[in-house]
Amino acid sequence: MIVTEVVCNLHDADAAEREALAGLHHEKVTLSSAELTKRVQRLETDHGRSFGLRLAGGSSDLRDGDVLIREEGNVVVVSVLPTDVLVIAPRSVAEALFVAHSLGNRHLQAQFFGAESEYAAEVMVVQYDHTVVSFLEEHGVAFARQERVMPVPFRHAEHTH
C-alpha cells in the first residue's frame, strides 16, 4: 500500500470526527522531527505493518496526530518523537532582538510562541546546540533545555547573500 495524502489530523478534527476515530484500533508510526519533512519514505507501524508514503511536492510536512490510513476498524497515526530544544525566554524586547539577531546570523531556525501557548510565556525555541548554550550563558539570557514535540519540524533555512 502507498499513502499519497493525509486523511486528517487528530488534533484538528471536530468533536464528531474525534469520537469516530476514538472507537477505532490505533496503530502508530513513530517519526523523528527530521523524518516529518520527507515526502517519500517506507514506514512501519508499532504493529509491524509496512507501507509506503509518497506525498505530492507541495504538500505540508507531516505533524503529530496526522492520520495516514483510515480503514474499517483501524487507523494509522503519526506520533512524533520529542526534540532536544532550548526554550529561550528573553527578559526584554532589547534582549529578544539581540538574541534573535545573533542566532539569525548562525542561520538557526527558531519557532516563536506567545503567552497563550503551552509555554505560558513569550519564548523563542531552537534546536539544542552547545554553542548556543555557551552564547546564552555568556550573555546572561534565560533559557531551559527541554524535550518537546514541536508543532512543526525544524528545517534548514535557505538563503543567499
Q: How would you describe the overall organization of this protein?
A:
- With 161 residues, this protein is an alpha+beta fold.
- The protein contains 3 helices and 11 strands.
- The strands form 3 sheets. A 4-stranded mixed sheet has the order 2-6-7-3, with no helix packed on it. The chain has a 4-stranded antiparallel sheet with strand order 9-10-8-11, with no helix packed on it. A 3-stranded mixed sheet has the order 1-5-4, with no helix packed on it.
- The longest helix is centred in the middle third of the chain and has 12 residues, at 93-104.
- 17% of the residues are buried.
- The model has no long low-confidence stretch (mean pLDDT 92).
Structural topology:
Blueprint: E1 2-3, E2 8-9, H1 15-22, E3 25-31, E4 40-44, E5 50-54, E6 66-71, E7 74-80, E8 83-88, H2 93-104, E9 110-113, E10 123-127, H3 130-138, E11 143-148
Parallel strand pairs: 1-5, 3-7
Antiparallel strand pairs: 2-6, 4-5, 6-7, 8-10, 8-11, 9-10
Residue share in β-strands = 25-35%
Distance N terminus to C terminus? 44 Å
Which stretches are poorly predicted, pLDDT < 50 over at least 5 residues? none
Number of H/I helices = 3
